[in-house]
Amino acid sequence: MSPVVLGIDTSATVCAGLARGGEVLASGVVDDTRAHAEQLMPLVRRVAAQAGLDGLAGVDAIAVGVGPGPFTGLRVGVVAASVLAEALGLPIRGVCSLDVLAHQGVAAGLVSGEFVVASDARRKEWYWARYGADGRRLDGPFVTAPDELPDLPRVGPVTSTPLDLDAGVLASIAAGLPEAGLEPLYLRRPDAEVPTARKSTLVPPRLAPRRIR
Amino acid sequence: MSGPLILGIESSCDETGVGIVRGHELLANEVASSVEEHVRFGGVVPEVASRAHLHAMVPALRRALATADVDLTEIDAIAVTAGPGLMGALVVGLSAAKALAVAVNKPLYGLNHLVGHVAVDLLDHGDLPQPCAALLVSGGHTSLLAVNDITGDIRELGATIDDAAGEAYDKVARLLGLAYPGGPVIDRAAAAGDPAAIAFPRGLTAGKDLAKHRFDYSFSGLKTAVSRWVETRRRDGEDVPVADVAASFQEAVCDVLTAKAVDACEYLGVDTLLLGGGVAANSRLRALLEERTAARGITLRRPRPALCTDNGAMIAVLGAEVVTAGLAPSGLDIGANPGLDVSVVRVGPASAPGRLAG
Ligand SMILES: [Zn+2]
User: What is the predicted pLDDT for the residue at A211?
Assistant: First the structure.
């Protein structure tokens, strides 16, 4: 029998799902972009129960979306998936979350020909990547302002063809997607400034009053 | 040995810790620090720390289990720091702990980091006389606590109203051209200096401040005073006596820390003071506190330095206390709380909304 895969993605909302081979057994989403740490593991338990599993016994592999996505939420899924794999002694595969959306877009017939998948990067920017008609990534992922995207049809949570990630689908196709590793696709460096000259704490010398003639 | 077998995870600042205890017995304490990555910024950068936690978590977990020579299936419960601390950093440890709890199907306890600094001494010195007082000093916190019951009745008597003591050390070290973190380097530089060379101010010790802030601390004014003094010397083309400045600054910090801690013991009528946090390793703080507590007949307890800095064992042993006390687990839907009050030893069960699609 095909292996049972648990799929997790927290690159935007909180998603978890299970698949056996290409068949989705269960899929759940909590539409909350600010409480990933609270929502993820209860959701994993619910989808496992929905799939008829006894806890996570019966799961054979873990797949996780490694973004791109807002950092704090993204790390929730990646660390949880990594620890689950370690504790259960299971193989784990990281995939690009946009690749999953691309596959969903093609499967749903939302696109024909080349297209772009885009998601919210906050700060008035988008995460995006360019895909061929078959859903294979051609370029990206990137983070830019929306007006820097190529002039192609767009799908994804932030676009006019909205599409939300389905972690059951992620679990069902992860083995066939490019391996993305377990390092989150941050695409941005941490906000941090190397300190420059310190401000003086001494009172600045008073300027001599200028004489008005 | 007796007591529950607890695995504790800590990630509130720049240390990724996984500790394992059985009751009061320490079995493993694996700590990975990202301090080197923060040096060029002169302070902890939250996003840099959070990324480092993600890298370090699974390896630390693996090492801790190997060192303790226990199997995950033997663990009775998972304990984790729920706050206070840096949000992005806390979330990594909390998410790891929840995943572990689900994987091994064991209860999860979200615990208070500050109380962990107190509890860790149980590993070194056994049962804590209660009530007692605790002084916690580190780069992130400066607090005076009244500990009536480590699992349920802890109260903050006072805390810093601006910078943590460790932060003041970092800032003064930078001013003097010394390395980050400032605690150990100032301590070393001070050894060759005269603590009475410069009379730096003692924050919140004047009469009117004492009335309102008897047990609170302030290090911002001290930091500014040191800065002014050094800059004035430099402006006038004079050499800056680094050792004397370091010693005089350190004396001002330690004087006020210890004076208020001893005052707190007398106010509470307790005869045990516990010193915790990273700055507890400071030689002058230890010496002065030993002297002043001994003079008043107060017993000073201080865990070994490796347990004073942030680590997973402190959360694990607090977990063991909480489990032994019979408190209910926290539930899988708790969140991290960067400002968690010290009176909340264990984050209670909550319920979260959510919908299940498909
Ligand atoms: Zn601490």
Answer: 43
Give the strands of the sheet with B153-159, arranged side by side: B153-159, B142-149, B132-137, B272-276, B299-301
pLDDT tens-digit readout, B228-249:
999 999 999 999 999 999 999 9
Domain annotation covers residue A60: yes
Distance between CA atoms of A127 and A125, rounded to whole angstroms?
7
Distance CA(B299)–CA(B132), nearest Å, equals 10
The 10s digit of each residue's pLDDT in A70-109 is 999 999 999 999 999 999 999 999 999 999 999 999 999 9
- Pairing between β-strand B25-33 and β-strand B77-83 as defined by DSSP bridges: unpaired
Q: How far apart are CA B83 and CA B147, in angstroms?
A: 18
Peptide bond into B241 cis (omega under 30): no
| Number of domains chain A is built from | 1
Q: Check which CATH number belongs to the domain holding A96 and give it.
A: 3.30.420.40
The answer to whether the predicted template modeling score (pTM) of the entire model surpasses 0.90 is yes
Chain B interface, best mutation among A8, A23, A29, A41, by max B CB count within 10 A: A41
Distance (Å, whole) CA A161 – CA A148: 18
Residue type, B333: D
Ligand 1: distance of its center to the CA of B117 in Å?
7
ipTM of the complex: 0.93
Residue A205, classed as helix, strand or coil, is: coil
pLDDT in tens, B283-305: 999 999 999 999 999 999 999 99
The H or E element containing residue B207 is helix B207-213
Q: Count Cβ–Cβ pairs < 8 Å, chain A vs chain B.
A: 142
Best mutation site among A186, A191, A201, A202 for testing chain B: the one with the most B CBs within 10 Å? Answer: A201
> Residue A75 falls within a domain, yes or no?
yes
Please report whether residue A206 resides in a domain.
Answer: no
CA distance A3 to chain B (A): 18
Percent of chain B having pLDDT more than 70? 97
Amino acid at A119: S
Write out the residue range of the structural domain in which residue A14 sits: 4-176
Tell me, yes or no, whether A90 lies in a domain.
yes
